[in-house]
Design goal:
binds cobalamin, binds iron/sulfur cluster
Protein backbone atom coordinates (compact mmCIF):
# COMPACT_ATOMS: atom_id res chain seq x y z
CA UNK A 1 0.00 0.00 0.00
CA UNK A 2 1.02 3.61 -0.42
CA UNK A 3 1.03 5.73 2.73
CA UNK A 4 1.37 9.47 3.16
CA UNK A 5 2.26 10.73 6.65
CA UNK A 6 1.87 14.42 7.42
CA UNK A 7 2.94 16.55 10.37
CA UNK A 8 1.08 19.83 10.76
CA UNK A 9 2.46 23.13 9.43
CA UNK A 10 1.60 25.33 12.43
CA UNK A 11 4.56 26.53 14.44
CA UNK A 12 4.95 28.82 17.41
CA UNK A 13 6.83 32.00 18.11
CA UNK A 14 10.10 30.36 19.17
CA UNK A 15 10.47 28.58 15.82
CA UNK A 16 11.37 31.15 13.15
CA UNK A 17 11.37 29.47 9.74
CA UNK A 18 14.87 30.67 8.95
CA UNK A 19 16.46 29.27 12.10
CA UNK A 20 14.53 26.22 13.34
CA UNK A 21 12.86 23.55 11.28
CA UNK A 22 12.92 20.06 12.82
CA UNK A 23 11.58 16.76 11.56
CA UNK A 24 8.72 15.09 13.42
CA UNK A 25 10.36 12.09 15.08
CA UNK A 26 7.12 10.19 15.57
CA UNK A 27 6.31 10.00 11.85
CA UNK A 28 9.80 8.87 10.79
CA UNK A 29 9.60 6.19 13.46
CA UNK A 30 6.21 5.01 12.22
CA UNK A 31 7.58 4.97 8.65
CA UNK A 32 10.44 2.74 9.85
CA UNK A 33 8.07 0.27 11.42
CA UNK A 34 5.56 -0.62 8.73
CA UNK A 35 5.99 -3.85 6.78
CA UNK A 36 8.71 -3.56 4.15
CA UNK A 37 6.48 -3.83 1.07
CA UNK A 38 4.55 -0.59 1.82
CA UNK A 39 5.71 2.65 0.21
CA UNK A 40 5.71 5.48 2.74
CA UNK A 41 6.20 9.21 2.19
CA UNK A 42 6.68 11.51 5.19
CA UNK A 43 6.01 15.22 4.72
CA UNK A 44 6.74 17.66 7.53
CA UNK A 45 4.43 20.46 6.43
CA UNK A 46 6.27 22.95 8.61
CA UNK A 47 8.79 23.03 5.73
CA UNK A 48 6.16 24.41 3.34
CA UNK A 49 4.31 26.66 5.73
CA UNK A 50 3.42 29.31 3.16
CA UNK A 51 2.15 26.88 0.52
CA UNK A 52 0.46 24.06 2.39
CA UNK A 53 -2.47 23.58 0.04
CA UNK A 54 -0.22 23.32 -3.04
CA UNK A 55 2.14 20.91 -1.27
CA UNK A 56 -0.66 18.58 -0.14
CA UNK A 57 -2.32 18.69 -3.54
CA UNK A 58 0.96 17.79 -5.23
CA UNK A 59 1.77 15.02 -2.73
CA UNK A 60 -1.68 13.49 -3.04
CA UNK A 61 -1.23 13.35 -6.82
CA UNK A 62 2.33 12.00 -6.70
CA UNK A 63 1.95 9.47 -3.89
CA UNK A 64 -1.67 8.44 -4.63
CA UNK A 65 -1.96 7.16 -1.05
CA UNK A 66 -4.31 4.47 0.16
CA UNK A 67 -3.73 5.70 3.71
CA UNK A 68 -3.03 9.22 4.99
CA UNK A 69 -1.81 9.69 8.57
CA UNK A 70 -1.71 12.99 10.42
CA UNK A 71 0.35 13.82 13.53
CA UNK A 72 -1.35 16.54 15.56
CA UNK A 73 -0.70 18.73 18.62
CA UNK A 74 -3.60 20.55 20.25
CA UNK A 75 -2.86 23.95 18.75
CA UNK A 76 -2.81 22.31 15.32
CA UNK A 77 -6.30 20.78 15.60
CA UNK A 78 -8.03 23.40 13.45
CA UNK A 79 -5.45 23.11 10.67
CA UNK A 80 -5.67 19.32 10.90
CA UNK A 81 -9.45 19.52 10.37
CA UNK A 82 -8.88 21.62 7.25
CA UNK A 83 -6.26 19.21 5.90
CA UNK A 84 -8.58 16.26 6.55
CA UNK A 85 -11.25 18.05 4.49
CA UNK A 86 -8.80 18.71 1.66
CA UNK A 87 -7.47 15.16 1.57
CA UNK A 88 -10.99 13.68 1.64
CA UNK A 89 -12.15 15.96 -1.15
CA UNK A 90 -9.22 14.87 -3.32
CA UNK A 91 -9.58 11.16 -2.63
CA UNK A 92 -12.91 10.18 -1.05
CA UNK A 93 -11.97 6.51 -0.51
CA UNK A 94 -8.64 7.16 1.25
CA UNK A 95 -8.24 5.83 4.81
CA UNK A 96 -7.50 8.73 7.16
CA UNK A 97 -5.69 8.03 10.44
CA UNK A 98 -4.86 10.57 13.13
CA UNK A 99 -2.34 10.23 15.96
CA UNK A 100 -0.05 12.14 18.29
CA UNK A 101 -0.76 14.10 21.47
CA UNK A 102 -4.05 15.76 20.60
CA UNK A 103 -5.93 12.77 19.16
CA UNK A 104 -4.59 10.64 22.03
CA UNK A 105 -5.73 13.01 24.76
CA UNK A 106 -8.88 14.40 23.18
CA UNK A 107 -10.20 11.57 20.97
CA UNK A 108 -13.78 12.84 21.24
CA UNK A 109 -12.81 15.98 19.32
CA UNK A 110 -12.03 13.84 16.26
CA UNK A 111 -15.26 11.87 16.19
CA UNK A 112 -17.19 14.52 14.23
CA UNK A 113 -14.33 14.89 11.72
CA UNK A 114 -14.07 12.84 8.56
CA UNK A 115 -11.50 10.48 10.07
CA UNK A 116 -11.52 6.67 9.87
CA UNK A 117 -9.06 5.67 12.58
CA UNK A 118 -7.39 7.24 15.58
CA UNK A 119 -4.28 5.86 17.28
CA UNK A 120 -3.88 6.70 20.98
CA UNK A 121 -0.37 6.73 22.42
CA UNK A 122 2.63 5.15 20.72
CA UNK A 123 2.02 4.53 17.06
CA UNK A 124 4.54 2.07 15.65
CA UNK A 125 2.86 -1.22 16.49
CA UNK A 126 -0.83 -0.20 16.10
CA UNK A 127 -0.17 1.52 12.78
CA UNK A 128 1.69 -1.53 11.44
CA UNK A 129 -1.18 -3.75 12.51
CA UNK A 130 -3.75 -1.36 11.08
CA UNK A 131 -2.09 -1.46 7.64
CA UNK A 132 -2.09 -5.25 7.79
CA UNK A 133 -5.79 -5.28 8.65
CA UNK A 134 -6.73 -2.79 5.91
CA UNK A 135 -4.69 -4.73 3.35
CA UNK A 136 -6.37 -8.01 4.23
CA UNK A 137 -9.81 -6.54 4.78
CA UNK A 138 -9.64 -7.94 8.34
CA UNK A 139 -11.21 -6.59 11.55
CA UNK A 140 -9.38 -4.06 13.71
CA UNK A 141 -11.00 -4.87 17.07
CA UNK A 142 -7.85 -6.57 18.41
CA UNK A 143 -5.50 -3.64 17.74
CA UNK A 144 -4.57 -2.08 21.08
CA UNK A 145 -4.78 1.71 21.30
CA UNK A 146 -6.89 2.02 18.14
CA UNK A 147 -10.20 3.88 17.94
CA UNK A 148 -12.40 3.21 14.91
CA UNK A 149 -15.90 3.67 13.59
CA UNK A 150 -18.54 1.12 14.47
CA UNK A 151 -22.05 1.66 13.19
CA UNK A 152 -22.92 5.27 13.85
CA UNK A 153 -20.47 5.64 16.71
CA UNK A 154 -16.87 5.07 17.65
CA UNK A 155 -15.27 2.11 19.32
CA UNK A 156 -12.18 2.62 21.48
CA UNK A 157 -10.11 -0.57 21.72
CA UNK A 158 -8.31 -0.99 25.06
CA UNK A 159 -4.94 0.73 25.35
CA UNK A 160 -1.84 -1.43 25.19
CA UNK A 161 1.01 -1.08 27.69
CA UNK A 162 3.77 1.37 26.74
CA UNK A 163 6.47 -0.32 24.68
CA UNK A 164 9.52 -1.42 26.70
CA UNK A 165 11.83 -0.61 23.75
CA UNK A 166 14.52 -3.15 24.63
CA UNK A 167 13.45 -6.09 22.48
CA UNK A 168 14.29 -4.50 19.13
CA UNK A 169 10.66 -4.54 17.98
CA UNK A 170 10.65 -0.76 17.42
CA UNK A 171 13.00 -0.50 14.48
CA UNK A 172 15.02 2.58 13.47
CA UNK A 173 13.21 5.53 11.90
CA UNK A 174 13.00 5.63 8.11
CA UNK A 175 14.54 9.00 7.25
CA UNK A 176 14.66 8.04 3.58
CA UNK A 177 10.86 8.33 3.52
CA UNK A 178 10.96 12.11 3.98
CA UNK A 179 9.97 13.92 0.83
CA UNK A 180 10.51 17.57 1.79
CA UNK A 181 13.81 19.35 2.41
CA UNK A 182 14.97 22.21 4.60
CA UNK A 183 15.51 20.93 8.15
CA UNK A 184 17.72 23.40 9.99
CA UNK A 185 18.94 24.57 13.35
CA UNK A 186 20.70 27.88 12.82
CA UNK A 187 21.97 26.91 9.39
CA UNK A 188 23.04 23.34 10.18
CA UNK A 189 20.89 20.42 9.12
CA UNK A 190 19.18 19.01 12.19
CA UNK A 191 17.61 15.66 12.99
CA UNK A 192 15.89 14.17 16.01
CA UNK A 193 16.94 11.02 17.85
CA UNK A 194 15.32 9.26 20.82
CA UNK A 195 17.24 7.32 23.43
CA UNK A 196 14.33 6.70 25.84
CA UNK A 197 10.63 7.32 26.33
CA UNK A 198 8.63 8.37 29.34
CA UNK A 199 9.03 10.18 32.62
CA UNK A 200 8.27 9.36 36.25
CA UNK A 201 7.59 12.94 37.37
CA UNK A 202 4.14 14.50 37.06
CA UNK A 203 4.51 18.21 36.35
CA UNK A 204 1.02 19.65 36.20
CA UNK A 205 1.45 21.31 32.77
CA UNK A 206 2.88 18.30 30.96
CA UNK A 207 0.87 15.88 28.82
CA UNK A 208 3.27 13.00 29.08
CA UNK A 209 1.74 11.20 32.04
CA UNK A 210 -1.79 11.18 30.60
CA UNK A 211 -0.28 10.05 27.32
CA UNK A 212 1.61 7.01 28.59
CA UNK A 213 1.56 6.76 32.40
CA UNK A 214 4.55 7.19 34.70
CA UNK A 215 7.34 5.02 33.34
CA UNK A 216 10.76 5.21 31.74
CA UNK A 217 12.04 2.82 29.08
CA UNK A 218 15.31 2.98 27.23
CA UNK A 219 16.77 1.93 23.89
CA UNK A 220 20.11 0.10 23.86
CA UNK A 221 23.18 2.26 23.17
CA UNK A 222 23.86 0.15 20.10
CA UNK A 223 20.54 1.24 18.66
CA UNK A 224 20.98 4.88 19.71
CA UNK A 225 24.41 5.09 18.07
CA UNK A 226 23.06 3.45 14.92
CA UNK A 227 20.26 6.03 14.90
CA UNK A 228 22.70 8.93 15.28
CA UNK A 229 24.86 7.51 12.47
CA UNK A 230 21.80 7.17 10.27
CA UNK A 231 20.82 10.80 10.97
CA UNK A 232 24.38 11.89 10.15
CA UNK A 233 24.40 9.82 6.95
CA UNK A 234 21.21 11.62 5.94
CA UNK A 235 23.03 14.93 6.28
CA UNK A 236 22.43 15.99 9.90
CA UNK A 237 25.10 18.08 11.62
CA UNK A 238 23.04 18.75 14.74
CA UNK A 239 21.16 16.12 16.72
CA UNK A 240 18.23 17.01 18.97
CA UNK A 241 17.66 14.32 21.62
CA UNK A 242 13.90 14.42 22.01
CA UNK A 243 13.56 12.11 25.03
CA UNK A 244 10.84 13.12 27.45
CA UNK A 245 13.34 13.12 30.32
CA UNK A 246 16.76 11.75 29.41
CA UNK A 247 18.17 12.83 32.78
CA UNK A 248 16.05 10.46 34.84
CA UNK A 249 18.97 8.06 34.83
CA UNK A 250 22.04 10.25 35.07
CA UNK A 251 24.50 7.35 35.13
CA UNK A 252 23.04 6.07 31.89
CA UNK A 253 23.26 9.53 30.36
CA UNK A 254 26.92 9.79 31.38
CA UNK A 255 27.57 6.40 29.81
CA UNK A 256 25.77 7.58 26.67
CA UNK A 257 28.05 10.63 26.42
CA UNK A 258 31.06 8.32 26.76
CA UNK A 259 29.64 6.01 24.09
CA UNK A 260 29.13 8.95 21.71
CA UNK A 261 32.77 9.97 22.18
CA UNK A 262 34.01 6.42 21.80
CA UNK A 263 32.03 5.99 18.57
CA UNK A 264 33.56 9.20 17.13
CA UNK A 265 30.11 10.82 16.92
CA UNK A 266 31.11 13.76 19.15
CA UNK A 267 31.91 15.94 16.15
CA UNK A 268 28.21 16.52 15.67
CA UNK A 269 26.45 19.21 17.73
CA UNK A 270 23.92 17.98 20.27
CA UNK A 271 20.91 19.68 21.77
CA UNK A 272 19.25 18.09 24.80
CA UNK A 273 16.44 18.84 27.25
CA UNK A 274 17.56 18.44 30.84
CA UNK A 275 16.36 18.57 34.44
CA UNK A 276 18.07 21.18 36.57
CA UNK A 277 18.35 18.81 39.57
CA UNK A 278 20.38 16.24 37.60
CA UNK A 279 22.77 18.82 36.19
CA UNK A 280 23.15 20.56 39.55
CA UNK A 281 23.83 17.36 41.47
CA UNK A 282 26.08 15.64 38.93
CA UNK A 283 27.45 18.62 36.98
CA UNK A 284 30.99 18.31 38.29
CA UNK A 285 31.55 15.13 36.28
CA UNK A 286 28.61 15.32 33.88
CA UNK A 287 29.13 18.77 32.37
CA UNK A 288 32.73 18.21 31.14
CA UNK A 289 31.68 14.87 29.68
CA UNK A 290 28.71 16.45 27.90
CA UNK A 291 30.98 19.10 26.46
CA UNK A 292 33.38 16.47 25.13
CA UNK A 293 30.48 14.55 23.61
CA UNK A 294 29.47 17.61 21.57
CA UNK A 295 26.57 19.02 23.59
CA UNK A 296 26.10 22.66 22.72
CA UNK A 297 22.61 23.75 23.75
CA UNK A 298 20.96 22.45 26.92
CA UNK A 299 17.28 23.19 27.38
CA UNK A 300 16.76 23.52 31.12
CA UNK A 301 13.24 23.05 32.46
CA UNK A 302 13.63 25.79 35.07
CA UNK A 303 9.87 26.49 34.87
CA UNK A 304 9.91 29.26 37.48
CA UNK A 305 12.30 30.76 40.00
CA UNK A 306 9.68 31.21 42.72
CA UNK A 307 8.93 28.30 45.01
CA UNK A 308 5.19 29.03 45.14
CA UNK A 309 4.96 28.85 41.34
CA UNK A 310 7.02 25.66 41.29
CA UNK A 311 4.54 24.14 43.69
CA UNK A 312 1.63 25.06 41.41
CA UNK A 313 3.52 23.55 38.47
CA UNK A 314 4.37 20.46 40.57
CA UNK A 315 7.94 20.99 39.48
CA UNK A 316 9.69 21.54 42.81
CA UNK A 317 11.25 18.10 43.06
CA UNK A 318 12.90 18.21 39.64
CA UNK A 319 14.33 21.61 40.45
CA UNK A 320 15.85 20.73 43.80
CA UNK A 321 19.58 20.09 44.10
CA UNK A 322 20.50 17.06 46.18
CA UNK A 323 23.64 15.84 47.86
CA UNK A 324 23.53 12.21 49.03
CA UNK A 325 19.76 12.38 49.06
CA UNK A 326 19.63 15.62 51.10
CA UNK A 327 17.88 18.64 49.61
CA UNK A 328 20.29 21.53 48.92
CA UNK A 329 17.75 24.13 47.72
CA UNK A 330 16.88 25.30 44.21
CA UNK A 331 19.06 23.69 41.58
CA UNK A 332 18.81 26.24 38.82
CA UNK A 333 21.78 28.51 39.44
CA UNK A 334 24.06 25.61 40.18
CA UNK A 335 22.99 23.83 36.99
CA UNK A 336 23.52 26.95 34.89
CA UNK A 337 26.92 27.48 36.45
CA UNK A 338 28.07 23.94 35.62
CA UNK A 339 26.94 24.32 32.02
CA UNK A 340 28.45 27.76 31.53
CA UNK A 341 31.77 26.73 33.03
CA UNK A 342 31.98 24.17 30.24
CA UNK A 343 30.95 26.58 27.51
CA UNK A 344 27.51 25.11 26.91
CA UNK A 345 24.57 27.37 26.17
CA UNK A 346 21.47 27.42 28.33
CA UNK A 347 18.04 27.54 26.75
CA UNK A 348 15.96 28.68 29.69
CA UNK A 349 12.51 27.10 29.87
CA UNK A 350 10.34 29.28 32.11
CA UNK A 351 6.57 29.42 32.60
CA UNK A 352 5.07 32.77 33.58
CA UNK A 353 1.42 33.64 34.10
CA UNK A 354 0.53 31.10 36.79
CA UNK A 355 -2.59 31.79 38.92
CA UNK A 356 -0.83 33.65 41.74
CA UNK A 357 1.50 35.61 39.45
CA UNK A 358 1.67 39.36 39.85
CA UNK A 359 3.49 41.86 37.66
CA UNK A 360 6.39 41.69 40.14
CA UNK A 361 6.68 37.91 40.15
CA UNK A 362 6.66 37.81 36.34
CA UNK A 363 9.26 40.58 36.20
CA UNK A 364 11.43 38.64 38.66
CA UNK A 365 11.46 35.67 36.30
CA UNK A 366 12.16 37.85 33.27
CA UNK A 367 15.03 39.54 35.11
CA UNK A 368 16.41 36.12 35.92
CA UNK A 369 16.23 35.11 32.26
CA UNK A 370 17.95 38.35 31.25
CA UNK A 371 20.77 37.69 33.61
CA UNK A 372 21.38 33.97 33.39
CA UNK A 373 20.03 32.32 30.26
CA UNK A 374 21.53 32.42 26.79
CA UNK A 375 18.32 31.83 24.88
CA UNK A 376 14.92 32.38 26.48
CA UNK A 377 12.19 29.81 25.93
CA UNK A 378 9.56 31.46 28.06
CA UNK A 379 6.00 30.23 27.84
CA UNK A 380 2.64 30.71 29.46
CA UNK A 381 0.78 27.95 31.24
CA UNK A 382 -1.50 26.39 28.64
CA UNK A 383 -4.45 24.15 29.49
CA UNK A 384 -3.82 21.19 27.19
CA UNK A 385 -6.35 18.34 27.27
CA UNK A 386 -6.41 16.28 30.46
CA UNK A 387 -3.42 17.80 32.24
CA UNK A 388 -3.82 18.43 36.00
CA UNK A 389 -3.16 22.12 35.31
CA UNK A 390 -6.16 22.36 33.00
CA UNK A 391 -8.41 21.13 35.80
CA UNK A 392 -7.03 23.74 38.18
CA UNK A 393 -7.44 26.60 35.70
CA UNK A 394 -11.01 25.51 35.01
CA UNK A 395 -11.85 25.31 38.70
CA UNK A 396 -10.49 28.81 39.23
CA UNK A 397 -12.28 30.10 36.09
CA UNK A 398 -9.06 31.64 34.78
CA UNK A 399 -9.24 30.43 31.17
CA UNK A 400 -9.89 33.51 29.03
CA UNK A 401 -9.40 32.09 25.58
CA UNK A 402 -10.95 28.89 24.18
CA UNK A 403 -9.48 29.18 20.67
CA UNK A 404 -7.26 26.10 20.60
CA UNK A 405 -5.25 27.27 17.60
CA UNK A 406 -3.80 29.89 19.94
CA UNK A 407 -2.69 27.27 22.49
CA UNK A 408 0.88 27.44 21.25
CA UNK A 409 2.56 28.23 24.57
CA UNK A 410 3.59 31.78 23.75
CA UNK A 411 0.05 33.11 23.47
CA UNK A 412 -1.28 33.67 26.99
CA UNK A 413 -4.73 32.09 27.12
CA UNK A 414 -5.22 32.11 30.88
CA UNK A 415 -5.27 35.07 33.25
CA UNK A 416 -3.73 35.19 36.69
CA UNK A 417 -5.59 36.27 39.84
CA UNK A 418 -4.02 39.69 39.32
CA UNK A 419 -3.38 40.23 35.60
CA UNK A 420 -5.30 39.67 32.36
CA UNK A 421 -3.79 37.17 29.92
CA UNK A 422 -2.84 39.82 27.37
CA UNK A 423 -0.83 41.76 29.95
CA UNK A 424 1.08 38.62 30.91
CA UNK A 425 1.93 38.00 27.28
CA UNK A 426 2.93 41.61 26.73
CA UNK A 427 5.42 41.50 29.62
CA UNK A 428 7.04 38.34 28.31
CA UNK A 429 7.12 39.44 24.68
CA UNK A 430 8.65 42.81 25.51
CA UNK A 431 11.52 41.32 27.51
CA UNK A 432 12.17 38.28 25.40
CA UNK A 433 12.99 40.04 22.12
CA UNK A 434 16.01 41.73 23.64
CA UNK A 435 17.29 38.60 25.34
CA UNK A 436 17.10 36.81 21.99
CA UNK A 437 18.93 39.60 20.15
CA UNK A 438 21.73 39.36 22.70
CA UNK A 439 22.39 35.76 21.66
CA UNK A 440 23.46 36.63 18.12
CA UNK A 441 27.22 36.98 18.93
CA UNK A 442 27.28 33.41 20.33
CA UNK A 443 25.75 32.12 17.09
CA UNK A 444 28.16 34.27 15.07
CA UNK A 445 31.15 32.60 16.73
CA UNK A 446 29.85 29.14 15.90
CA UNK A 447 28.26 29.76 12.49
CA UNK A 448 29.67 33.03 11.14
CA UNK A 449 28.48 32.46 7.59
CA UNK A 450 24.90 31.84 8.67
CA UNK A 451 24.79 34.98 10.79
CA UNK A 452 26.56 37.19 8.27
CA UNK A 453 24.11 36.22 5.57
CA UNK A 454 20.98 36.14 7.70
CA UNK A 455 21.41 38.58 10.61
CA UNK A 456 19.00 41.19 9.20
CA UNK A 457 16.28 38.59 8.69
CA UNK A 458 16.91 37.09 12.14
CA UNK A 459 16.53 40.49 13.76
CA UNK A 460 13.52 41.31 11.62
CA UNK A 461 11.82 38.15 12.87
CA UNK A 462 12.72 38.79 16.50
CA UNK A 463 11.40 42.35 16.34
CA UNK A 464 8.35 41.63 14.19
CA UNK A 465 5.84 44.44 14.42
CA UNK A 466 8.49 47.13 14.92
CA UNK A 467 8.73 50.11 12.59
CA UNK A 468 11.02 53.06 12.03
CA UNK A 469 8.68 55.09 14.22
CA UNK A 470 8.88 52.60 17.06
CA UNK A 471 12.68 52.43 16.73
CA UNK A 472 12.74 56.21 17.12
CA UNK A 473 10.50 55.94 20.17
CA UNK A 474 7.67 57.76 18.41
CA UNK A 475 5.38 54.83 18.91
CA UNK A 476 4.63 52.81 22.04
CA UNK A 477 5.54 49.17 22.64
CA UNK A 478 1.80 48.48 22.90
CA UNK A 479 1.33 49.48 19.25
CA UNK A 480 4.20 47.19 18.19
CA UNK A 481 2.73 44.37 20.28
CA UNK A 482 -0.65 44.81 18.58
CA UNK A 483 1.05 44.50 15.17
CA UNK A 484 3.00 41.46 16.34
CA UNK A 485 -0.28 39.84 17.45
CA UNK A 486 -1.82 40.57 14.06
CA UNK A 487 1.14 38.93 12.30
CA UNK A 488 0.79 35.83 14.48
CA UNK A 489 -2.95 35.73 13.76
CA UNK A 490 -2.33 35.79 10.02
CA UNK A 491 0.38 33.14 10.34
CA UNK A 492 -2.09 30.74 11.93
CA UNK A 493 -4.12 30.68 8.73
CA UNK A 494 -1.73 28.33 6.98
CA UNK A 495 -4.51 26.70 5.01
C1 LIG B 1 10.87 17.24 21.35
C2 LIG B 1 9.64 18.06 21.61
C3 LIG B 1 9.55 19.29 20.97
C4 LIG B 1 10.57 19.83 20.00
C5 LIG B 1 10.11 19.51 18.55
C6 LIG B 1 10.86 18.45 17.89
C7 LIG B 1 10.14 17.91 16.66
N1 LIG B 1 10.04 18.57 15.58
O1 LIG B 1 9.65 16.81 16.71
C8 LIG B 1 10.44 21.35 20.24
C9 LIG B 1 11.26 21.75 21.43
C10 LIG B 1 10.84 22.23 19.08
C11 LIG B 1 8.97 21.38 20.61
C12 LIG B 1 8.17 22.46 20.37
C13 LIG B 1 6.84 22.50 20.72
N2 LIG B 1 6.19 21.62 21.49
CO1 LIG B 1 6.93 19.91 22.00
N3 LIG B 1 7.57 18.32 22.75
C14 LIG B 1 8.62 17.62 22.49
C15 LIG B 1 8.63 16.35 23.37
C16 LIG B 1 9.63 16.56 24.50
C17 LIG B 1 8.96 15.05 22.65
C18 LIG B 1 8.21 14.80 21.34
C19 LIG B 1 8.84 13.66 20.59
O2 LIG B 1 9.49 13.86 19.59
N4 LIG B 1 8.69 12.42 21.08
C20 LIG B 1 9.21 11.23 20.41
C21 LIG B 1 8.24 10.74 19.32
C22 LIG B 1 8.71 9.42 18.74
O3 LIG B 1 7.03 10.51 19.97
P1 LIG B 1 5.66 11.27 19.58
O4 LIG B 1 5.94 12.54 18.91
O5 LIG B 1 4.79 11.28 20.75
O6 LIG B 1 5.05 10.28 18.51
C23 LIG B 1 4.52 9.02 18.87
C24 LIG B 1 3.02 9.05 19.20
O7 LIG B 1 2.55 10.30 19.61
C25 LIG B 1 2.35 8.56 17.98
N5 LIG B 1 2.04 9.47 16.88
C26 LIG B 1 2.45 10.73 16.67
N6 LIG B 1 1.97 11.18 15.50
C27 LIG B 1 1.27 10.19 14.94
C28 LIG B 1 0.58 10.12 13.73
C29 LIG B 1 -0.07 8.93 13.38
C30 LIG B 1 -0.79 8.82 12.09
C31 LIG B 1 -0.03 7.82 14.28
C32 LIG B 1 -0.71 6.58 13.93
C33 LIG B 1 0.64 7.92 15.50
C34 LIG B 1 1.30 9.09 15.81
O8 LIG B 1 3.29 7.62 17.48
C35 LIG B 1 4.61 8.15 17.64
C36 LIG B 1 5.57 7.02 17.78
O9 LIG B 1 5.28 6.21 18.87
C37 LIG B 1 7.14 16.30 23.85
C38 LIG B 1 6.81 15.54 25.11
C39 LIG B 1 7.31 16.07 26.45
N7 LIG B 1 7.73 15.22 27.33
O10 LIG B 1 7.35 17.24 26.66
C40 LIG B 1 6.70 17.79 23.76
C41 LIG B 1 5.26 18.07 23.35
C42 LIG B 1 4.87 17.12 22.24
N8 LIG B 1 5.32 19.43 22.83
C43 LIG B 1 4.26 20.11 23.05
C44 LIG B 1 4.06 21.45 22.65
C45 LIG B 1 2.78 22.09 23.07
C46 LIG B 1 5.00 22.14 21.89
C47 LIG B 1 4.92 23.59 21.45
C48 LIG B 1 3.56 24.09 20.99
C49 LIG B 1 5.46 24.56 22.46
C50 LIG B 1 5.26 24.26 23.79
N9 LIG B 1 4.24 24.86 24.35
O11 LIG B 1 6.07 23.53 24.35
C51 LIG B 1 5.99 23.66 20.35
C52 LIG B 1 5.39 23.56 18.95
C53 LIG B 1 6.39 23.22 17.91
C54 LIG B 1 6.03 23.82 16.62
N10 LIG B 1 5.57 23.03 15.66
O12 LIG B 1 6.11 25.02 16.48
C55 LIG B 1 3.26 19.35 23.88
C56 LIG B 1 2.04 18.89 23.11
C57 LIG B 1 0.78 18.97 23.97
C58 LIG B 1 -0.46 18.90 23.18
N11 LIG B 1 -1.50 18.42 23.82
O13 LIG B 1 -0.55 19.30 22.05
C59 LIG B 1 4.18 18.22 24.47
C60 LIG B 1 3.46 16.91 24.77
C61 LIG B 1 4.80 18.79 25.75
C62 LIG B 1 3.77 19.20 26.78
N12 LIG B 1 3.56 20.50 26.94
O14 LIG B 1 3.16 18.39 27.41
N13 LIG B 1 8.58 20.21 21.15
S1 LIG C 1 9.96 16.29 34.16
FE1 LIG C 1 9.59 16.98 32.03
S2 LIG C 1 8.73 15.20 30.94
FE2 LIG C 1 8.61 14.79 33.17
S3 LIG C 1 6.52 15.40 33.74
FE3 LIG C 1 7.90 17.17 34.12
S4 LIG C 1 7.87 18.38 32.21
FE4 LIG C 1 6.97 16.36 31.74
Amino acid sequence: MRVLLLSMPDSFEHMPSLAIRMPNGGLSSIAGNVDAHHRVAVADLILVQGRVREAITRLMREVEPHVVGLSIMTFQRRTAARIIGLVRAMKPDVHIVVGGYDPSLAPDAYEPLDVDYLVRGEGEVPFRELLRAIERGAGVEAICGLSHRKGNGWMHNPAGPPHRLQDGEVRLPNRGARVLRGYTLLGRQVDVVETSRGCTYDCSFCSIIEMRGRNFFTYSFERVLADIRDARDHGARTIFLVDDNIMLDVRRFEALCAAIIEAGLHRLDYFVQAMTSSIASHGETLAPLMKRAGFRYVFLGIENILESDLEFLRASAKNTARDQGKSMGNATLKAIDHLHRHQMLVVGGLIVGNPEDTRESIEANLAFARRYVDWPYIQHPTPYPRTPMTKQFREQALIENQRLEEYDGTTAVVRTQHLPAEEVEFLRWKAERWIKARHIPAVLRHDPWFVLTHAPRMLAHTFRGSSLRSALNLESDRAVFARYKAIRKAERECL
